Automatic annotation (TrEMBL):
It comes from the Bacteria. Pfam families: Peripla_BP_2. GO terms for biological process: iron coordination entity transport. This is Siderophore ABC transporter substrate-binding protein. Residues 56-313 form the Fe/B12 periplasmic-binding domain.
Length: 313
């Protein structure tokens, strides 16, 4: 009996040790899972694994910077040429200049040792170079589905920086504002033409363009459904505008952002435009070019775009 009892105790002791070890391993694994803050972000250029709440953030997209600023997320570097006035605080010396929108300073970016880099269409071709330095997330804004892009990008940022609830509320506010504007526009049955002025040259943008939110989300009827979808727009003349004679002409002044000798208001002050109904009714609307041309897609910028149209409409 003694031997048998001793054997039983030994077996129980071994079993207890194994059970304790197993429990310890499970707990350690569980703790590891709980502390694993790495997530995978799917985007148009691939997928990127990033650590949640990264501390050293480099941003090459002003729309993304706008949203991060709204979320009170700090960054370490950005391209400082053509920073919109709404983001003027990022001209401060505490933020490093990492090149131009289309000419990244990869050496400077490497020196900053970022935890994450955000880029957009202007840097898409350099995606692989960015990836060599740090996890890089491509924040695309599709003009044909502007709000779809805004929602997707904002939710990506919310997930990365633990701001999901904040993002949901901001998106709800934007949606409410769009619905209100859309109802007013649809009830008016107004048509519109979107024009980009570039230091004396003008081009038109339609429904599927980078400024398509005016038609798709805001509800303005396109005065010309045949405008080609192009990043640079369809080249037009003032005679074309008179021929189409839209109720509203929305003007984005590229020269006001990138530099030029002739403003949009100067070139639209001509006898042909003065014959249009839009001019006669005070509906030549000059949009906030900084937001519409270089900083669209952000939470605050999108609200500005809505207010831009609503206040003039």
């Amino acid at each position: 009996m003694t031997k048998r009892k001793g054997l039983l105790i030994s077996v129980l002791l071994i079993f207890s040790i194994l059970l304790f070890t197993a429990c310890g391993t499970t707990k350690e694994k569980g703790n590891a899972e709980e502390s694993t803050d790495t997530i995978t972000i799917q985007h148009s250029l691939g997928e990127t694994k990033v650590d949640k709440n990264p501390k050293r953030v480099v941003v090459f997209d002003y729309g993304t910077l706008d949203s991060l600023d709204k979320m009170n997320v700090e960054i370490v570097g950005l391209p400082k040429a053509n920073i919109p006035s709404s983001l003027e605080k990022f001209n401060d010396d505490k933020y490093e200049n990492v090149g131009a929108l289309k000419e990244p300073d990869f050496e400077k970016i490497f020196e900053l040792q970022p935890d994450i880099i955000f880029i957009s269409g202007r840097q898409a071709e350099s995606y692989e170079e960015f990836e060599k330095i740090a996890p890089t997330v491509y924040m695309e804004v599709d003009g044909a589905d502007y709000m779809g892009s805004v929602i997707k990008n904002a939710k990506i940022l919310g997930e990365i920086f633990d701001k999901e609830e904040f993002v949901e509320q901001e998106l709800a506010n934007i949606n409410d504002a769009i619905q209100e504007l859309n109802q007013e526009v649809v009830d008016s049955e107004k048509n519109a033409l979107i024009v980009l002025a570039n230091d004396g040259m003008i081009s038109a943008y339609g429904e599927g363009s980078r400024f398509g939110i005016i038609h798709r989300e805001f509800g303005f009827i396109p005065v010309d459904k045949g405008i080609e979808v192009s990043n640079h727009g369809q080249s037009i003349t003032f005679e074309y505008i008179l021929e189409k004679n839209p109720d509203v002409v929305f003007v984005v002044d590229r020269a006001a952002v990138t530099g030029g000798s002739t403003s949009a208001k100067q070139i639209f002050d001509n006898d042909i435009i003065k014959q249009t109904e839009a001019y006669k009714n005070g509906k030549i609307v000059y949009l906030n070019s900084e937001i519409w041309y270089v900083a669209s897609g952000g939470l605050t910028g999108t609200k500005t775009m809505i207010e831009d149209v609503q206040s003039n409409f």
